[in-house]
């Protein structure tokens, strides 16, 4: 992914870049179908694209919740998508020992929000030489993320992305403070808005996280209006039956219309 961060920030189209895909890799066929459709849309709209899919879900409310189809199987699916479609891929890692394993298959290693202060994890991700996308903890200010950036860079890797995903508001809701996007950009790294996880309603008594997917475009429009470099959107052709985080994913059929509107906003502020 040589110089890919520069390409994301300086495209001929002037568009934001997009990280999108299913929450989790549920199987090869559905992952390939989602990737194919998103790539057709992003190619048409000239949006730089990174395919997103978690090879394993380590943070679940209930022990019985879906966590994955097997690490190597899911990672090989991500590898195939990257190879056959010619796009970068991103997946989460949760422990230091996973960094080298995942780096053999994907281009971007993502640090989950709950783990953004884990020094050993950040260093292990940095040492792979891959791009490191650090999601801002729901419990942190934007300003405190400069220390996450410093940890990655001090480990010899300057390929860092920061992603905002809202701040905890009470026990079962999140809010987005858009002042944080330019503040994190001041650290000299691309900043992404996670438009789906920022609409989660965690800690439900059912043990299944809720969400407000009808507000995804609202979050995205505001992020583009304040100058976000990229957007993170989890999407699925059948969110109601997705195996993870279906309550806050964008229906895949709505993606092109949503992105088209966002491009108009981007063009208006350039």
TrEMBL record:
<dbReference type="GO" id="GO:0008676">
    <property type="term" value="F:3-deoxy-8-phosphooctulonate synthase activity"/>
</dbReference>
<protein>
    <recommendedName>
        <fullName>3-deoxy-8-phosphooctulonate synthase</fullName>
        <ecNumber>2.5.1.55</ecNumber>
    </recommendedName>
</protein>
<dbReference type="GO" id="GO:0005737">
    <property type="term" value="C:cytoplasm"/>
</dbReference>
<comment type="pathway">
    <text>Carbohydrate biosynthesis; 3-deoxy-D-manno-octulosonate biosynthesis; 3-deoxy-D-manno-octulosonate from D-ribulose 5-phosphate: step 2/3.</text>
</comment>
<keyword id="KW-0963">Cytoplasm</keyword>
<comment type="similarity">
    <text>Belongs to the KdsA family.</text>
</comment>
<feature type="domain" description="DAHP synthetase I/KDSA">
    <location>
        <begin position="15"/>
        <end position="263"/>
    </location>
</feature>
<dbReference type="GO" id="GO:0009103">
    <property type="term" value="P:lipopolysaccharide biosynthetic process"/>
</dbReference>
<dbReference type="InterPro" id="IPR006218">
    <property type="entry name" value="DAHP1/KDSA"/>
</dbReference>
<dbReference type="InterPro" id="IPR006269">
    <property type="entry name" value="KDO8P_synthase"/>
</dbReference>
<dbReference type="InterPro" id="IPR013785">
    <property type="entry name" value="Aldolase_TIM"/>
</dbReference>
<comment type="pathway">
    <text>Bacterial outer membrane biogenesis; lipopolysaccharide biosynthesis.</text>
</comment>
<keyword id="KW-0808">Transferase</keyword>
<dbReference type="Pfam" id="PF00793">
    <property type="entry name" value="DAHP_synth_1"/>
</dbReference>
